[in-house]
Amino acid sequence: MAETEGKSFVSYELRGNVALIGLTRPEKRNAISDAVIEELALVIERARNEAKAAVIFGEGQHFCAGLDLAEHSEKPLLDSIMGSRRWHEVFDRMQRGTIPFFAALHGAVVGGGFELASSCQIRVADETTYFGLPEGQRGIFVGGGGSVRIERLIGTSRMTDMMLTGRVAKAEEMERWGGVNYLAPAGGAIDKAIELAEEAASNSEFSNYAVMNALPRIRDMSSEDGLFVESMVSALASMTPEAQDRLRAFLEKRAKKVLAD
Ligand code: 1HE
């Protein structure tokens, strides 16, 4: 674990195949400073090397209050741009990396905290969770990938509303909008996220990689190009020894069936 001036803001634990990554700066509501981003970068790489899925959560009352505004207010223009580009780089390693990330959300998921959550493949929110994009109120703009990732999840109109009017969306509303995949009782997001991560960790690594990397790219392509790329990825997946083993297991009645409960 990287430490900044003797203090670490991110925790890491490997539990079976699942890496648990915690934001551990509750005294500042897990606000994301440059040091936090660099620690996140390290644990994301570590998780990619030794886990098959990861869960990210926040300690204290809130998941994350977004960008560290104290640090940000002192940055010259070019440093601000490079800071934003660094967030993109690090979050991209989650969204289009090799292992899926599950966000376990509670309390405030605000600004850059929402951007971090939107870089995960799946979001689980407990009933205390609420989402806000107060960038307009702070005189800034999303800079951690939100204009692409949050917009893809909830659409331009809802995101515009949140940014212009300061509208806050609670967990259930965000689930209806497409920004949350699962709702959990208060305090229950982490257990649910771990359960889902364990499920995903049991898939073929290539299939998970294809889901994470092909789907968002196909989303940005024309239908014709998307269908072509789909055929390529599909054929590649079928060629892996893992696919051969798993297909055989099903045909020999050794594999789990797809049942409704
Ligand atoms: C912070 C931050 C922060 C708290 N940067 N220090 N994000 C925001 O605009 C959200 C700002 N934060 C809040 O609205 C509230 O803090 C919360 C609703 C999240 C939590 O409220 P509460 O009452 O539990 O805590 P608090 O008393 O407001 O904050 C506790 C401490 O955390 C306090 O510091 P202290 O030294 O006075 O104890 C706060 O100053 C500090 N703190 N949030 C720095 N964000 C890549 S672009 C992304 C752009 C954005 O993310 S914009 C959204 C920024």
Write up this protein.
It is built from twelve helices and nine strands. The model has no long low-confidence stretch (mean pLDDT 96). With 261 residues, the protein is an alpha/beta fold. It is globular. It has a six-stranded mixed β-sheet with strand order 1-2-3-4-6-9, with helices on both faces. β1 (10-15) and β2 form a beta hairpin. It has two domains: 10-201, 2-enoyl-CoA Hydratase, Chain A, domain 1 (Alpha-Beta Complex), CATH 3.90.226.10; 205-251, Lyase 2-enoyl-coa Hydratase, Chain  A, domain 2 (Orthogonal Bundle). It has helices at 34-50, 69-72, 77-95, 112-118, 135-138, 146-154, 156-165, 171-177, 189-201, 205-219, 223-239, 241-251, and strands at residues 10-15, 18-23, 53-58, 101-105, 108-110, 122-126, 130-132, 169-170, 182-184. The structure holds 3-methylmercaptopropionate-CoA (MMPA-CoA). 3-methylmercaptopropionate-CoA (MMPA-CoA) binds at residues 28-29, 31, 61-62, 65-70, 84, 87, 108, 110-112, 134-135, 138, 140, 142-144.
Strand content: 5-15%
Count the beta strands: 9
Radius of gyration: 19 Å
Do you know the CATH architecture of the largest domain?
Answer: Alpha-Beta Complex
What is the SS-derived class?
alpha/beta
**Helical coverage, percent range:** 40-55%
Q: Bound compounds, please?
A: 3-methylmercaptopropionate-CoA (MMPA-CoA)
The CATH C-level class name of the largest domain: Alpha Beta
SSE topology string: EEHEHHEEHEEHHHEHEHHHH
The shape is globular
N-to-C span? 40 Å
* Order of the strands making up the biggest sheet: 1-2-3-4-6-9
CATH topology of the largest domain: 2-enoyl-CoA Hydratase, Chain A, domain 1
In total, the number of domains comes to: 2
Largest sheet: 6 strands, mixed
- Separate helix tally: 12
Contiguous uncertain segments of 5+ residues: none
